[in-house]
Design brief:
binds fe (ii) ion, alpha/beta, TIM Barrel, 8 helices
């Protein structure tokens, strides 16, 4: 794909890493320091939807010890965080976990609950990364809408975003 992009004259630098699902393999990869990272040793990981695993904090601690910078994928989408509110994310935040928001969450693409929590996270200035979650054309149409949204603008102007050139 890198070759095709270059040949087409599209000005885009493509890199690939991973969004790790929090399972036993992820814990092994941390131990063995085999994680795929982006930028300066950032590691994107996501949690199960139904319940928060007990070992999240331990895993975060271990990643930090090994010089990784953990990034939690779409914190706004987990029902257990939505239900207990922002303070349920405080511990991870205080441990240095960075949060990656899906832009589509801002316009209710997933659900009204996700949207509401996404707005709270943006207002609280807790988002460091924004992603497109670009799976197909349907997502693309919603993404175009999302980047017109006031909350998206707020996020871009927060000074907090580490990938603020996503939609430049
Ligand atoms: Fe995900």
């Amino acid at each position: 794909m890198k070759t095709v992009i270059k040949q087409s004259g599209i000005k885009l630098e493509l890199e690939a890493a991973a969004e790790y699902y929090f399972d036993e393999y992820f814990l092994i990869y941390i131990k063995e320091e085999k994680l795929l990272t982006f930028g300066e040793r950032y590691v994107l990981f996501e949690l199960p939807v139904m319940s928060k695993p007990q070992q999240v904090e331990d895993a975060v601690f271990e990643m930090t010890l090994k010089g990784y910078k953990p990034v939690l994928a779409h914190p706004e989408r987990y029902p257990y965080f939505q239900e207990s509110g922002l303070e349920s994310l405080e511990k991870l935040k205080s441990m240095g976990v960075l949060f990656q928001l899906n832009a589509l969450s801002l316009v209710g693409f997933y659900s009204p609950k996700v949207q509401k929590f996404a707005h709270q996270l943006v207002k609280n200035n807790w988002i460091e990364w924004v992603g497109s979650d670009m799976h197909n054309q349907r997502y693309f149409e919603a993404f175009k809408k999302a980047i017109q949204n006031d909350y998206y603008q707020m996020l871009c102007e927060s000074g907090n975003l580490l990938n603020n050139t996503l939609t430049e």
